[in-house]
Amino acid sequence: MPKKRSGGGLSATQQAAKFLGVSVLSGAVLAGIALPAVGALGLATKGSVESFDELPINLKTPPLSQRTTILDAGGGKIATVYSRDRTVVDLKDISPHLQKAIVAIEDSRFYEHGAVDLKGVLRAMNRNAQSGGVSEGASTLTQQYVKNVFVEEAGDDPTKVAQATQQTIGRKIRELKFAIQVEEELGKKKILENYLNITYFGQQAYGVEAAAQRYFSKPAKDLSLQESALIAGLVQSPSRYDPVNDETEATKRRNVVLARMAQVGDISQEQAAEASKTPLGLKVSKPKNGCITAVHGAGFFCDYVRQVFLNDPAFGKTPEARAKVWNHGGLTIRTTLDPQAQESLQASVKNHVNKSDEVATAASVVEPGTGKILAMGQSRPYGFGKNETQINLSVDQGMGGGAGYQPGSTFKPIVAAAALEGGMPATKTYASPYQMDYPAPVQACEGKTWNEPGVPVENENEAEVGPYDMKEATAKSVNTYYIEMISEIGICPVTQMAKKMGIERANGNKMEQAPSIALGTQEMSPLTMANGYATFASRGMYCTPVAIESISQRVGKKSKSLSVPKSTCSRAMSEKTADTINTLLRGVVEDGTGTEAGLGRRPSAGKTGTTDFRYAAWFVGYTPNLAGAVWVGDPEHKRQMVDISIGGTWHAKVFGGQVPGPIWRDMMSGALNGKEAPEFNLVNIPDRKKPDEDKGRGRGRGRGRGNDDDRGDGRGDGRNNDAGGIIGGLVGGGNGDTGTDGGAGTNGGAEPNPTISIPEGFLQGNGNGPGGRR
């Protein structure tokens, strides 16, 4: 039995039938569109009520899309992102002037009629008949609200939006049916509130709160009479009456609204006249949407958070479901970003590399033991302009980054960890000649072998001739030592260790089963390397990287918490292995290729890396409570870093310790300022006992720049009047005492202080070692 409206009279269904009957019989206009023949509607006049009743009754009202706010770990705002800029407010928080203005200009009989204004329909039909076209519509505010719900449900899908707005009688009938439902369930005040929150007002502003902020930089509750009239007038055509781009048309439209308000008795004629004389008084706030607005250079971290949300099944079973939640917004996302670390990273990057340089730099900082990403940035800003990019150079391709970059010798500690975990002593010695062929065959995974004899590999310079033990080979980044190591232990333990440490290729491909992996030939991202090295810092515990701490979602007037994925930690290696690696890598920054990255009295460890032909240079390092990676290079892998200006400084050749090292040092120093400085758990690694015949071999311990990757070897043989002894003593520090029992000379200076003229390039290595270096 049809349901009657309260107060008696025709039921909702009878109203609709009467309305349809009048419209069809008159052949007139239904809400601003010409009615087609009744056959196209599928409703015969006689059967209109029954067919109307068969339409679905429940209007699915989606949550209104709102802005999403991304916060740092301390609650500070990083950026605001939205599909539609909207802040939902209660009716009490909307100026009464604006409420009256909307009703007056859009549906002055709103409080007098039901879902359908039959009087308005007849008036529209009459005027349209007189004009010979469609000059007036008759949609009520309720019907307009329903249409906007359809548009909101369509989201950003152009096909669905077209279906929601198409001028067909079928859509109008559905709109009418739902409007009746809404009227009976919500009531006039709630309908008006919903309408004011869902409607588009131009300039990317959805809802009156966003519109008030956009045009007048104030909340909707504080809008004056003339300001309210301006915003109300935008509904009919936000582009035509846009006050930002056409003040004249906007003023005319505002005054029409004011006149209508006076006509229906909302204001006096005197008030309307006075308000019409005032200027628009715009105080425009430009749309601030997206990661491009992020503070402290955190645009790429902001985009990474978005990628995490869109890729993690925790936020929806399908990509479409996750995208829908993201686009609807209303989220408050608290992230792991540490503002101190982020500011320090950006300051260091800006100080060392210009955004207009031929090469770029990218860096990431993570917290060992938790996987929290504390900072992320690069020299080329987030944007669309010159020397800007939207490619996140710090992350994997699947998360908005590129295909990655060869990490060079920063991969060697993974090889060492695999060897140590397999039982190899840290005192292991290899012949480590200057040049050799890759040993073949080499055992790979799944019973396979690598067998390509005759492939050469060499060290950075000819002075690097073994034998070496693990400590010295790691400090000097000796290629042939690590090739002999991986040839002995096999490739599979190395790839397995890398996997345990979360170190995977940036393009998503599997690790290639080749011994050259020891020299860092397979592309990685800075975030991957930073988080992998954090495993060493946390004494062997690997934790998956996380960027999101918590998410709250506003649905209507309520907020709910969404479950977020947490970091999962697992043991990648024993504490003894990690402690041994920490001891080895501390030697790199104290007395090896990474001295320029040292943090002074604060304990630190790390490794340099420079690839073939100097397409990329790295420093990856850590303290017990912070790990970070810095990459410098050409993202397109075209510009070799030879004879190049970076950050205003000229470099004949770029090395891992020379450019990335200082960036890492300054970045970490600021990030750690004021924080505790815990010690590593170091192990005793005895020095290799030198043969007696080496007795008297002098070694200047100073590391003259330019002799190899980062600091000169400073080593002269001293035998048979070899000139190397002269250069090693004078240039490598100049004051190396004569060694006894094959021991190293002492008191070598930290920087070269030559007393003779040395031809330029005399101490340079040839830089042709295959597969990544230092």
Automatic annotation (TrEMBL):
One GO molecular-function entry: glycosyltransferase activity
Biased composition (Gly residues): 725-748, 764-774
Catalytic activity, reaction form: [GlcNAc-(1->4)-Mur2Ac(oyl-L-Ala-gamma-D-Glu-L-Lys-D-Ala-D-Ala)](n)-di-trans,octa-cis-undecaprenyl diphosphate + beta-D-GlcNAc-(1->4)-Mur2Ac(oyl-L-Ala-gamma-D-Glu-L-Lys-D-Ala-D-Ala)-di-trans,octa-cis-undecaprenyl diphosphate = [GlcNAc-(1->4)-Mur2Ac(oyl-L-Ala-gamma-D-Glu-L-Lys-D-Ala-D-Ala)](n+1)-di-trans,octa-cis-undecaprenyl diphosphate + di-trans,octa-cis-undecaprenyl diphosphate + H(+); Preferential cleavage: (Ac)2-L-Lys-D-Ala-|-D-Ala. Also transpeptidation of peptidyl-alanyl moieties that are N-acyl substituents of D-alanine
Penicillin-binding protein transpeptidase domain residues: 362-632
Species assigned in the record: Streptomyces incanus
One Pfam family from the record: Transgly
Keyword annotations of the record: Carboxypeptidase, Glycosyltransferase, Hydrolase, Membrane, Multifunctional enzyme, Protease, Transferase, Transmembrane, Transmembrane helix
Protein name: Transglycosylase domain-containing protein
EC number: 2.4.-.-
InterPro entries tied to this protein: Beta-lactam/transpept-like, Glyco_trans_51, Glycosyltr_51/Transpeptidase, Lysozyme-like_dom_sf, PBP_transglycosylase, PCN-bd_Tpept
Enzyme class: transferase
